[in-house]
Design a protein that fits this description.
By secondary structure, the chain is of the alpha+beta class. It has one domain (3-129): 3-Layer(aba) Sandwich (Aminopeptidase). Helix content is 32%, strand content 26%. It has helices spanning 11-24, 36-40, 64-78, 93-101; strands at 3-5, 50-52, 83-88, 105-116, 119-129. The strands form two sheets. The protein has a three-stranded antiparallel β-sheet with strand order 3-5-4. The radius of gyration is 15 Å and the shape is globular. 11% of the residues are buried. The mean pLDDT is 93.
């Protein structure tokens, strides 16, 4: 495995993996699948996007997440960002553990943040400072 900056040529694969997360219902409030065209619009030249080659569902648990997060933090730092923030479902222990392991800290909880499939869901707010801001 190796991490690298994503390109628009990666959009279809990114969409497929992102759609797995939508289907799993533990990573996003989104319910509709994203197309490669949707993903291509994420490439705005300001926000870094990284990929880990071969990081599909069947590769889970092999360090791709840690590799991706470290590459994203490096890319965000290089782009001038001083902090990364996210919101994670409390029951997504794997994501929370990964984020803790790369230096994110929990800063709070949004109760009843939004509904997913008609059920109110909380999220844990996490942040990672990237250096001097």
């Amino acid at each position: 495995m190796r991490a690298r900056p994503a390109t628009t040529a990666d959009a279809a694969v990114i969409a497929r993996i992102y759609n797995d997360g939508i289907d799993d219902r533990v990573a996003t409030f989104e319910t509709g699948h994203r197309s490669a065209d949707d993903v291509e619009r994420w490439f705005d030249g300001r926000h870094p996007i990284v990929v880990v080659e071969y990081a599909a569902r069947e590769a889970r648990g092999r360090g791709a997440g840690r590799m991706a997060m470290n590459a994203l933090m490096d890319a965000a730092r290089a782009a001038g960002f001083w902090k990364l923030v996210s919101r994670v479902f409390p029951e997504n222990a794997a994501s929370l553990g990964l984020l803790r392991s790369v230096g994110f800290r929990e800063v709070g909880r949004y109760e009843r943040h939004a509904q997913l499939d008609g059920v109110w869901r909380d999220v844990i707010i996490v942040e990672r400072l990237l250096g001097a801001g």
